[in-house]
Fold this sequence. Notes:
Layout: H1 3-10, E1 22-26, E2 29-32, E3 37-40, H2 43-46, H3 55-65, H4 78-90, E4 95-99, H5 102-117, E5 122-126, H6 135-140, H7 144-147, E6 157-160, H8 165-171, E7 176-182, H9 197-208, E8 211-215, E9 239-242, E10 253-257, H10 259-262, H11 278-293, H12 296-314, E11 320-324, E12 327-331, H13 337-346, E13 349-350, E14 352-354, E15 358-361, H14 369-385
Parallel strand pairs: 3-13, 5-6, 5-7, 7-8, 8-9
Antiparallel strand pairs: 1-2, 2-3, 4-10, 9-10, 11-12, 12-15, 14-15
Helix pairs in contact: 3-11, 4-11, 12-14
Amino acid sequence: MDMTAVLDDVTMPTYRRWPVEFLSGEGAWLRDTSGDRYLDLMAGIAVASVGHCHPKVTAAISSQAASLVHVSNLFLTRPQAELAGGLADMTGGMKAFFGNSGAEAVECAIKLARRWGGSRRTIVAAEKGFHGRTLGALAATGQLDKQEPFEPLPLGFEHVPYDDIPALEAALDDEVCAVILEVIQGEAGVLVPQSGYLTEVRRLCIEAGVLLILDEIQTGLGRTGRLFAYEHEGVAPDILCLGKALAGGLPMGACLARPEIADAFQLGDHGSTFGGGPVPSSAAIAVLEVIDEEGLCERAKVAGERLMKGLEAIAPHGSVVRGMGAMIGLELPDGGARSVVEACLERKVLVNDIGDKVVRFVPPLVISDDEIDHGLGKLEEVFDAI
């Protein structure tokens, strides 16, 4: 049965799917319906950070699902309490709200910032930034091509160039309640700001009396070589958005905030039917334990350095390799990123294109040196054929 045709007939045309159906995964590998194995260098777009079907995560999911799958958030569940407590320990005591995705974490952050800000309602975001596809998160997203088909969007957002301190400073007037930024702009092509940028952003927010919201949906939980990417500059946000890797592949997002900010919410201000349910919370607890026990922050740093150096050695002349830890973008001088992805797929290696010029690499953090070298060998074949 041609599953691509089936999906095209019965689902909305929002994805351009590759004609491969996967049945199973383990570590950095996926297996398709023909039994072929694929090296996964995109991890479901930075989701499978602890690898596919990590035994500890799957055991946590199975055990919890066998006892309790769902109750309303009007009642207590131990997995949610334990997860919130663990995240509080990691973030200096932040309080959590759980949803089902990174976009929902951003929506919560927007509402919380405005609730805290009172009459101050404007949120400053960055051009080229990406925060999600729900209407509020899309309004914060600084990409007109994604916004225009769905206008009018919610009001109260202003965009300034990324990595531009003077532009940000000029935007912080008396109407602003918060600044929202990605620490690294992932969907814009893995754009890493200059050293000290985040420190200066933090300073400006403090001086202006506005909140700093950091979107670490893609960069968080070890991806860049630290638990959170903001730690590279020794700063901390007022509100933190997490998603993607948090529950090991199950849908989960979290909005974390300093207690005095979080307490601006009142009963009934926000909610989620499924957010923080027992099964995804149990999975997330296991993910955090695996990151700690297996030293995946350090592994991300080491693996990322190996992959970056390898890419620099084999990429076409004039290419730019950039990133941090195991979050890497390869910008091709003459475009053709989609062709590279197609050629990699033919060689059973999964990578992701961003626009015409950038190929993105966000492999599972458990990837071994031999697996990285295997992927680089296949990529070299692709580049030699260009």
